[in-house]
Amino acid sequence: MASRCDCVPGADDPRIAVIGSNMVDLISYIRRMPHEGETLEAPDFAMGCGGKGANQAVAASRLGSKVLMVTRVGNDIFAENTIANFRRNGIDTTYVLPTDATSGVAPIFVDEESHNSILIIKGANALLSPADLAAAEADVARCRLIVLQLEIPLETVYAAIDMGHRLGIPVLLNPAPAQPDLLLERVRGCDFLVPNESELSLLTGMPVDTEQDVRRAASVLHRAGVRHVVVTLGSRGVLWLSDEGEELLPATSAHALDTTGAGDAFIGCFSHVLVETGDIREAIVQANVYAGDSVTKRGTQTSYATAEEFARVRAELER
Ligand code: RIB
């Protein structure tokens, strides 16, 4: 399948604008979920920087992309740490905006079989407005790709898609977490839509029980106007649909210790390779490997490889 993205011309100074969330991940490692009224002891706990937008920004930046983050942090003890984390990871924090609210927080439970459950309390993320985005327009205009998820208000997501179109910048939407109110009509102009199976099902109202179901639902998005539909199928790989046809690209097999944030690792790496090379197929192939590596380590951002570490992972696979 032809795999160039003519909308990403490749540049000396590629920049990715991530317009999205940040959270503080409070991760409890548990044996099993407690029943109602039951108190259980969890063997382990970790606190880390998370949030889908921040995770994707950190992954892309660790791989070498210049990333501009547009987000809101709270007025509590978490905000300073979140900003310091962005800076440590080389992310432009000009539009990391202080807010009179709590920071976003995500209690996460990971069981012994590496299944996870996540609660999100959006806090300041719920106040990221179209006006905040408008204030960042001059800097967003210098970017080669806009990356979006759904932990901020939908109006802001729609405004970012409109801004991308106005500025001629390709837009990637990761419709996560699944949002029943998301209007296909408002997102069908995205260049890249990257759902997992349940997000695909919610967005199309179609079943995704079989591979055939997934293909049918993905093609509905493509026919609606999405240029590239990239469905992440976990250990079964990634289905990519575009004008050129469809292709199932396999995942790398890895023993999963903690899959939390693997989807964000995929998006961060995909965005980085896409902006650097314009090669969509290569972006999917590398993102599969990057996400596969992340599940072998605990935590969200703590499991994301740097460019050097990722080069070693790829070299190991090629041996
Ligand atoms: O995708 C994983 C992320 O979802 C976590 O970091 C958590 O913060 C939630 O946003």
Automatic annotation (TrEMBL):
Record-annotated Carbohydrate kinase PfkB domain positions: 15-304
Gene3D superfamilies noted in UniProt: 3.40.1190.20
Top-level division of the source organism's lineage: Bacteria
UniProt: substrate binding residues: 23-25, 51-55, 151, 264
Residues engaged in binding K(+): 258, 260, 294, 297, 299, 303
Active site: 264 (proton acceptor)
Important for substrate specificity (site feature) positions: 23
Molecular-function annotations in GO: ATP binding; metal ion binding; ribokinase activity
This protein's GO CC annotations: cytosol
Pfam families linked to this entry: PfkB
EC number(s) on file: 2.7.1.229
Keywords: ATP-binding, Carbohydrate metabolism, Cytoplasm, Kinase, Magnesium, Metal-binding, Nucleotide-binding, Potassium, Transferase
GO biological process: D-ribose catabolic process
Enzyme class: transferase
Binding site for ATP: 196, 232-237, 263-264, 288
Cofactors that this protein relies on: Mg(2+)
Subcellular location: Cytoplasm
Assembly notes: Homodimer.
Family: Belongs to the carbohydrate kinase PfkB family. Deoxyribokinase subfamily.
Protein name per its UniProtKB record: Deoxyribokinase
Taxon lineage: Bacteria, Bacillati, Actinomycetota, Actinomycetes, Actinomycetales
Underlying gene: deoK
